[in-house]
Amino acid sequence: MSATEPHSGSEPDADGFVDFVRAYTKTWVHALAAAALTAFGTLTVVNRWFAALALAAYLVPLVVLYARWRRTGGELGMGPGVANQSASRSEAQSRDEQQPPSQEDEPAAVSASVNENVSDAATAPDIDETASDSTPHKPAVDAGTAPDEEQSTADAPHFRPDRDDEWTTADAPTDAPLSDVTITDAGHSYAVGGGGVVLASLDAGDWHTVLEDGPAAAGNDLASVAATDDGDAVWIAGDSGTVARIDTATDRHTDYTAPTGITDNWLGIAVGGDAGTETILLSNGSGELLCGRYRRDPTGADDTAASGSGELAWDEPLTPGSGSSLSGVDLADDAVGYCCDTNNGVFETTDGGTSFSRIGLDDAAGTFTDIVAATPSSQSSVLVSADDGVIHRYDGATWTPERVTDTAVTGLTVGGERLLACTDDGAVFERQLNSTEFSSATGIADSLQAVAVGPPRAVAVGSDGAIVERQR
Description:
Strand content: 25-35%
Helix content: 10-25%
Strand order of the largest sheet: 1-28-27-26
Distance between the termini: 35 Å
Number of helices: 6
Low-confidence stretches: 1-15, 79-165, 302-308
Structural class: alpha+beta
Radius of gyration: 30 Å
Shape: elongated
């Protein structure tokens, strides 16, 4: 018998005693028996025989009511909670009698719908409550639950990552490991990975190959991808100095590999500003950052990969920290950005990558894995993930650690006042930026390495060409 099926008049099953105890503890009889147990128990200091009275006062009502429970097939007939349950079952039975199904399989469909609604109510606290009052079965909002979160989600994108079935696996045109993903405001998604593969998608599930073996067909692994603020271009970076720019309107690319002659493995890339006036930051395993500035041809020539009209200038590389490998880099815009290294240093630039200053972090236990700059309107300026499952939040003055999980957090992204984090055991965690409560979707992939969010959807990528998506 399902959880939503009403009790019949027959004797309860083997689990009936558990159901009885749950119902009994909500009755006034239980409250009175518990009070008597306490009262007589305190009198045992006067005479130990009061212990027998205490036990009798508590157990006799329980035994009598359980006998009644078995005779009536699971009905106590007292207590407001139990009465409401009985009334609900009677009402449901009455509705079933008055509205017979029009098709033979309709009862099963109704049962499935009821079960789905019950599951949603139990597992999706962040469901958007902005539907009109005329919407059928609109759930009531609990005014005493998380008022700040309710208010902040009014204008923010709504996800329900605790619903595993809302994350779907895309049919990726590769089985190469994917290391990074980005989504533009226009909905263009790009993922990069092993062997120089570059994948793109405009619609959920519809992924195609842009590059099979990287720019110049060199086959070097790609580690990172980032988009301009307007989404008209994305930049990719990887091994052996690989760097390229892709026009999102055409998927055509221009190869800028080995900038200033550097052929190091680029571990990360960040882009700030609109296409044609973008700033690019590249990071490597030697703790170096290389800052570049791309400018559209001032004559106004068509800025496409075919014309090659853009001008790209690079600064001299700089080392913000001690030379430890840089594990994350991000730009909030073309001036403000951050990077972190494996020596738990976090550094900030306010001049577009010309210089960096250390802003933390001295007492972190794990090794940093990624960094993301939040939007200026948010309550968090930067967030850093670590391989011990902790995310460190910086508000411009104070660092606050938040434990998310017990495994490594491999990727972070922020969008629409929401923070998403993925892990190396295939989970995605999510919360509002002004909250500390995470919800999660677990087991959606074997291993995830990066996650991105944009207006159309959220996407996470990982091992063996894994791409999982969820519509907003």
